[in-house]
Design goal:
Radius of gyration: 27 Å
Helix content: over 70%
Number of domains: 1
Structural class: mainly alpha
Oligomer: single chain
Distance between the termini: 59 Å
Strand content: under 5%
Order of helices and strands: HH
Length: 83
């Protein structure tokens, strides 16, 4: 992902018209279009990361819940055997 983002940035600069040969407005529009595309790409990547984080959190919480239940049952078993 990082390499792809770097490549996008380098391409935007390389594909930009020469500041000496075009009006400043043309150059501004070029980078404004790039900004829109780049930030849309970033939003999609952040959404993927957030989804992944949510899945990991739910899985971890479920595993911790199950582990807690196992400890609880083990504790009850030990207590009943001692009595």
């Amino acid at each position: 992902m990082l390499q792809e983002m770097k490549a996008m940035l380098y391409a935007a600069v390389e594909e930009a018209p020469s500041a000496e040969s075009v009006e400043p407005e043309i150059l501004r529009r070029h980078f404004a279009n790039f900004d829109e595309h780049f930030f849309h790409y970033c939003d999609k990547e952040v959404a993927k990361i957030n989804t992944f984080t949510q899945v990991i959190t739910k899985t971890t919480n479920y595993k911790l819940y199950r582990l807690g239940m196992i400890f609880h049952l083990l504790f009850q078993t030990i207590c009943f055997q001692v009595s």
